[in-house]
Design goal:
The chain is built from eight helices and seven strands. Strand 5 and strand 6 form a beta hairpin. Helix 3 packs across helix 8 and helix 4 runs antiparallel to helix 6. The protein is globular.
């Protein structure tokens, strides 16, 4: 029985199918009953992992989508930041789902007041970004599922994203790993948490630069 539990997947196809459910109320009910309890488990384990790295205590924030009145959410997540009451103005990590894929990311979104400083610091550590694992992806908008491979856009593409982060009010920087729904549902629970922790560990040097620790 213990061996069977170990091999059981953390995510299922039904989890990803939540984002195909019609109607705000129906989709929110499915999110609250099926997805958010899993985000709670992730929140507990990953906030402890992040806090153990010594740059402050991290707190989990499960997306509530509370302001929505018509359109159902197309994605959902649990975020991690060094503040109890909010995360959007801070650089933060996220683990979440779109209907098509799982994401494990470091995000600097438009509410962050230090985007100019972050862009400058990252520009001075470009090698840190270009040497990330080859399956890492980057985007300038956390509200879109698409992202470009870091190795594909290279230093030139990254510089362009950082220039935009510095000068455009709504610009963002999202970097990390995407995993297709098929690959995500193939992972055992143990393998899933190992992947999340490994991805965060690979992103942490970038986070250190973002917060000015390097």
């Amino acid at each position: 029985m213990e061996e069977l539990k170990l091999k059981q997947g953390f995510w299922t196809t039904e989890d990803f199918n939540v984002f195909s459910i019609d109607g705000l109320e129906n989709r929110m009910n499915a999110l609250q009953n099926r997805i958010q309890p899993k985000f709670g488990v992730i929140g507990e384990q990953i906030s402890a992992h992040l806090s153990s790295r010594g740059t402050g205590e991290f707190f989990p924030h499960i997306a509530k989508h509370a302001r929505r009145t018509v359109n159902p959410p197309k994605d959902s997540w649990v975020a991690f930041a060094t503040a109890k009451r909010g995360y959007k103005a801070l650089p933060h990590f996220q683990v979440g789902l779109w209907g098509t894929h799982l994401f494990i990311i470091l995000a600097v979104i438009y509410e962050n007041p230090d985007k100019k400083g972050i862009a400058e610091r990252l520009s001075n550590h470009m090698k840190l970004l270009t040497s990330l694992p080859e399956d890492f992806v980057v985007s300038g908008d956390h509200m879109k599922p698409e992202a470009s491979p870091v190795r594909e856009i290279g230093a030139e593409g990254l510089e362009s994203l950082l220039e935009r982060l510095e000068s455009v009010k709504k610009a963002e920087l999202v970097i990390g790993r995407h995993l297709s729904r098929e690959a995500a549902t193939d992972l055992t629970e143990e393998a899933f948490f190992k992947l999340v922790e490994e991805t965060i560990d690979q992103l942490f040097p970038v986070y250190d630069v973002v917060i000015g620790h390097k």
